[in-house]
Amino acid sequence: MVKLSHDAIVERLESFGMVHRSVQCTTEGEYQPGDVDWNNKDVVHRNFVHSRISDVVCVIEKDLQASISYQTVLGMPFPLILVHYDTGPNEQAHFVTALAWTMVTRHQFIPVTETRTRAVTTYTVASTRFWMLLWPVIRRLLQINHRTLMSEDTPLRERRGRLRSWGYTFRGDGAPRDIRATISVAANNLEFPDPPLEAPTLPAVPLAGLSGGAPVLVGRSDHLGLLLRRDGDRVLAFSRVCPHEGAELDDVPVADGCQRCPWHGRELRPLAELDLTATHPEADTEWHHLEVVDDEIRVTVTETGPGRRVGVRSAAGSSA
Fold first, then answer.
1. Which of 136, 208, 240, 271 could bridge across to 225 with cysteines, CB 3.0–4.6 Å?
2. Residue 73 confidence class, pLDDT cut points 50, 70, 90
């Protein structure tokens, strides 16, 4: 498949007598180039994360997608046909036409250190010379739009960078992200640390602290942390991380007994449920044992990863 680079497209437009202007926007943070690559290609998150975008993706291939994108400009939805594809290592291009203008965008993800990346976006707008008189307005709108997009996208990149700092990886690491692999929200693409994490000691949670329905966070926001929420005579234990792409679930409201991932809309049921009417309330998740002792919920990590079992807490409080 032939795919023109940003510069090649601009050169062709020049041959038609178009003039062009460019503006460059840069962000930098503690994440890897692969996190920017994934973020730019991820199909589903746009309609959940972005406040000014409603996207219908019509064509999807390994490294190419075309969509009908309604983007809000000056408070009005503006329909655009957007084509996005890889043009080289750590580089992507997309192009779009709007009225008298054609915009060609180059995305570059430049590693600064092993854990830090600079993302450079170059917007090039081409038109006849008359319509380019509006370039100052267009440039300002592009800068505002980029700032809005990054305010919504950067937390996703930084979250993945934080998980990486704890030893997590993601399915597809080591190669450009396959766009087709971003479609299924049922896939578990977060991969546990290898070697497995050490089992943390988690503090007991007084039942009184769960009154009023306010959640209590236990541990940190990885697969060993829990979010506890009381519902009448039950205590529900939820995950603090979505296994799909690693979204943090600490501030996610519970509806119909499920969390809903803020990135992709995946619904997640409780990992465990404590029945407070039982003589000795206890329950297990894949990684924890929970029990109520002396009006406290005691949480013991029993396994930290595949093949890393660290002991099971008995009802009497000893290791079995």
1. 240
2. confident
